[in-house]
Amino acid sequence: MGEEVESQEITGADRTLHREKIRRNLDVFERMLREARFDTDDPMTGLELELNLVDAVGDPAMRNEQVLRAIADPAFVSELGRFNVEINVPPAKLREGGLTTFEEGMRQKLNEAEARSEDLGAHLVMIGILPTLAERHLSRSTLSADSRYDLLNEQVLDARGEDLAISIAGPERLETTADSIVPEAACTSTQFHVQTSPAQFAAYWNASQAIAGAQLAVAANSPYLLGRELWRESRIPLFEQATDTRSEELKAQGVRPRVWFGERWITSVFDLFEENVRYFPALLPIVDDEDPLEVLEAGGVPSLAELKLHNGTVYRWNRPVYDVADGMPHLRVENRILAAGPTVVDTVANAAFYFGLVRSLAEDERPVWSRMPFATARESFLSAARDGIDARLSWPGAGQVPATELILDTLLPLAAEGLDAWGVSSAERDRYLGIIEGRCVTKTNGAEWFAKRMRARSGMERADALRATLLEYREAMHTNEPVHTWT
Q1: How many CB atoms neighbour CB 53 within 10 A?
Q2: Phi-psi category of 293—alpha, beta or left, where left has phi over 0 and alpha has psi -120 to 50?
Q3: CB 362 within 8 A of CB 204
Q4: 180 secondary structure, DSSP code
Q5: Which of 119, 127, 292, 443 has a CA-to-CA distance to 486 between 20 and 30 Å?
Q6: Cβ atoms of residues 176 and 166 within 8 Å
Q7: d(CA 471, CA 487)
Q8: What is the DSSP letter of 444?
Q9: Is the pTM above the cut of 0.70?
Q10: Do 383 and 401 contact (CB within 8 A), yes or no?
Q11: What are the tens digits of pLDDT across the range 427-480?
Q12: Could you tell me the CA-to-CA distances from 441 to 3, 308, 383, 389, 408 in Å, in that order?
């Protein structure tokens, strides 16, 4: 959804033409996979981070246009809500100190951005859901001033035919409705990208699905929404419901949701793109002038614009990415599981855990997905979203065990092996994985820290307690000390 999309009226003829064109894209993509026209020699990794803007007292600051102008850095772009921005971190090679490069580069960019935005009365906060958001902040006027967001909002609501319903039950319960997709803007995430060959893609995607529960459990950071304590990673149900194009009747018929964990292990990246076309009507049926077959047969690299844009509106938690860089096509797994924050070093620790673990599992001679039902992976994902660090997860050979036990005994050693295979130095490996270990030993991640601090303020008015805790969180965030060491 980072593509530029002009405001326009979409007709039935547009949809018919788009359906024909995207199927041509899919045929060309299948041929490209057969003919191995992909950059696979020296895989890169990447990272994106979505951020919230708050004012001096911790309330949302609806100023992303002004902030982006002040930052004046192309690495920062708008996001769905006026209280959101995103930073795109340059890709890096892990064997060349990529993890440290990520940390140092993000800290420098974010510190510079904070210095410029604070002159506008806005401050950057890395957290999965801004806990000081209130119903009044989630009106349609909160949408960023970008035509693609207006068009997407219109198409989601037209497809659904009624207001969005948000229902989440945790320690407390939230029931509300929305007449726009603005609640999606409450979900700020970290996205990890790992480049892979067509032959290895299925293994990397399957591995990413298998570890989704462990990732969430150790890094949950979204315990509050609209003043209520809900799931430890409330982003998961909120995002699923805030972009749901299905009426209750379509849900009953088994129509797939656009925010989707999936329903099976795959054998090829083609499986995912083909599912996108088969199951999901286009939200943005915009047709490019390119003839992909003509470009391919002339020795060029087609952009597959329709396939890419459509893929950007199917919100898989692990999403396939086709892109072209320096005239060469490549494939990536985009891991979209985790919330933003709490600190830059926590974010890079999460990256190290993901990159190491996914490589180790993808290259295992006896893959974990051959021993784990897909439904088990999804159940662990939901359990971790609900319970965070206290979740119980299922794993082959271990049964159902506490998430911290599974990570300490089984997954951290695998992640270390994977980072060694990437060529990561032992100092980097031990520093970042040590943070994951520390969270497990102390049973503290961002969500637990925030919930405990809120309990300490139980005598205050809820809104005041949320503001005070968020300001305390922001102060600790700037120390770049891992969240499990915060007092």
Answers
A1: 24
A2: alpha
A3: yes
A4: S
A5: 119
A6: yes
A7: 14
A8: -
A9: yes
A10: no
A11: 999 999 999 999 999 999 999 999 999 999 999 999 999 999 999 999 999 999
A12: 42, 42, 20, 10, 8
